[in-house]
Specification:
The protein is mostly helical. It is built from 14 helices and no strands. This is Low temperature requirement A.
């Protein structure tokens, strides 16, 4: 008898079959973490342009452009993340396509400046469409071995392809009103694709892997915000005689960033990934959390410019550019992950303090209330740990 030798995969490619959603020890891969770092470049550039535009006094233009640009960044990241949790093979083709997608991120990042300066979306759309074309190829490859999820993968590929054609067509619209309406319609079309596809049969997402991926991206964005904020303050220190306001702003940056980290990682996020509705709420809701984290550093820059007299924005509004992103971040985490895992005290303190942060501009001491209320939230989270899976507190669990 001749010995049987395993047949090498054709072209050294692994079959792209659905991953086991209950797989033990599933963690973010080094490729996924590398992928996140490239996306943070785009987040940093968007935040920097938001800061510059607001400092010039164009608050409305800056916020609108930032939210649209950030949608493209976040949506491309999220689509890859949820695809990877279901079909990651980590073979050479998967890696190459992912790296090409990173190239699309860099093209998109290069197009952010023209959007803020001249409302020229051509380069940004080119990078975005390139990323989405790569996702189409990944979904089509997955369709060959998806089994019961085959129709879902085809709907994803077709839906993404149709919307990309519409994005390219949108570039030809000259009328500003129709252009603005078109952006809204196309964003709705993008977010509708997963809803339509997953109702035909859900892909096998891994709760622990997904929430780890979101956690990793949150840490990276918070780190970028802290770095950008620190650089802004360090540069401003040499330009003023009274450094007390800048020192207080620096204390705010460290305290608030640490508090945002503490708040985000307090609840067991994986419990939110279950039903299709819950998973969509968790995935889509993170747009506000990520956008707020990225905007926080822009707000710190605006506040520093205001203290230097280098901002065209009213001083009260400048303080709001810090407090509003913080409030949105905290409320977003509370709605998506904290509320279902906390007792009545925490569910009162967290949203109340998040809203009270918005009172910061009304007192003469900049950033004091924001720092104070964020510390109060953290204290509440330390005193009252998350409820267990049966909705019981730690004390109740011991009694039982």
């Amino acid at each position: 008898m001749t010995a049987q030798h395993p047949v090498a995969p054709r072209f050294r490619l692994s079959p792209m079959r659905p991953r086991d959603p209950g797989e033990e020890g599933r963690a973010a891969s080094t490729l996924e973490l590398f992928f996140d770092l490239v996306f943070v470049i785009a987040v940093s550039i968007a935040s920097s342009h938001l800061h510059d535009t607001i400092t010039e006094g164009r608050l409305g233009d800056g916020v609108v452009n930032y939210l649209v640009v950030f949608f493209g960044i976040w949506w491309a990241w999220m689509n890859f993340t949820w695809f990877a949790t279901s079909f990651d093979t980590d073979d050479w083709l998967y890696r190459v396509l992912t790296i090409v997608q990173m190239g699309g991120v860099l093209i998109l990042a290069a197009g952010i400046g023209p959007v803020f300066d001249d409302r020229d979306f051509r380069l940004l759309i080119a990078g975005y469409v390139l990323m989405r074309i790569i996702m189409i190829s990944q979904w089509l490859r997955a369709s060959r071995g998806a089994g019961r999820a085959r129709w879902t993968t085809i709907v994803y590929a077709a839906g993404i392809g149709i919307v990309q054609v519409l994005w390219v067509a949108w570039l030809t619209i000259d009328d500003p009103v129709f252009s603005a309406v078109g952006v809204g319609v196309l964003i709705l079309a993008e977010v509708a694709v997963p809803v339509i596809a997953e109702t035909r049969g859900t892909t096998p997402w891994h709760p622990d892997h997904i929430t780890e991926r979101y956690g990793c991206f949150t840490i990276i964005v918070l780190g970028e915000s802290l770095l950008a904020s620190a650089n802004t303050i360090f540069e401003a220190l040499g330009e003023v005689e009274d450094i007390v306001p800048l020192v207080s702003l620096g204390v705010l940056c460290l305290t608030v960033t640490a508090s945002m980290w503490w708040i985000y990682f307090w609840p067991p996020h994986h419990r939110a990934i279950g039903s299709l509705g819950g998973s969509l709420k968790y995935g889509y809701g993170h747009y506000f959390i990520f956008a707020a984290a990225g905007a926080f550093s822009a707000g710190v820059g605006v506040e520093a410019d205001s203290q230097l007299g280098a901002s065209a924005l009213d001083r009260g509004l400048a303080t709001f550019t810090v407090s509003v992103p913080i409030a949105v971040f905290v409320l977003g985490v509370w709605v998506l992950a904290i509320r279902a895992n906390a007792n009545g005290v925490v569910n009162t303190v967290v949203p109340a303090c998040a809203l009270l942060v918005l009172l910061d501009p009304i007192i003469p001491v900049p950033t004091f209330l924001t720092t104070f209320f964020m510390v109060i939230i953290v204290i509440a989270l330390v005193v009252f740990p998350p409820l267990d899976e049966n909705g019981k507190s730690a004390a109740e669990a011991v009694v039982r």
